[in-house]
Every structure is written in C-alpha cells, then in structure tokens.
Amino acid sequence: MERPNALRWLGYAVGVRLPDRYNDWALYDATSKHWRARYVLQRSIGILPLCAVWLLLPGSIWLRLSLVLMAALVAYFYSCAYMEESVEHRLGRQGFPHNTGRRLRAEAAEAKNAEATARYLARYRTPSEG
C-alpha cells in the first residue's frame, strides 16, 4: 500500500482526489480501526487556517478566542454530523462503489463481535449449557 506524501495528503485532506495508485491507502483511511480520528484530523486542516485568521482580527484577545472557539465547535459539529456521508463521498470520488466503506466497516465489526461472543461463550458457558 503506497501512502501519499505530505503535499498530496494535504490536498486529500481538503478534498482533492488522489491518483489511482493511492486507492488502497484511501480505502484503508476510510475503513481502518481509527477512521473517525483520521477524519477529524483531516477536517482540522481546513479549520485551523480559518481559526488563525480570526485570531488576527482586531478586538480584545478574549473576544477573538471566543470567536475561534465557537467557530471551531460549529465546524467540528457539522463535520462530524456528516462524517459517514463525507467518507463515502470521498471513496466514491476515488472510484469505489457507493457504500464500500460502510460495508467494509460493518464486516470488520461483525467479525470483531463474533470473536468477542466466542470468547464470552468459551469463558462463561459450560459445555452442557450449549
């Protein structure tokens, strides 16, 4: 799996389509164990420059910090509210069929739940209880 360099990753974080050779990495990015944290980090790339500009506005530091805090909270709220749809759209832009990410994450969760159920049954159920 080829990982994009820093410049390509920055473009990807703000919505630029990666070349096809990075498709495996894009799929991993959208379906890995920490896909939500990766998504929030990518959204931060778009939010931080705006926050920096707002800090340069005239006014008291408390007013500017309050503006930055409120704007960042709203931006993160809406980004996270549409997280799955945004990730699916990004995968679609990379050429994957609709709902690929959801399907792969659901399959991984199902496998993880099956393992946990098997461990539970092995530990807390006697063979006669079945």
TrEMBL record:
Domain of life: Bacteria
Protein name (database record): DUF5313 domain-containing protein
Bilayer-crossing regions: 40-57, 63-83
One Pfam family, short name: DUF5313
Record key words, sorted: Membrane, Transmembrane, Transmembrane helix
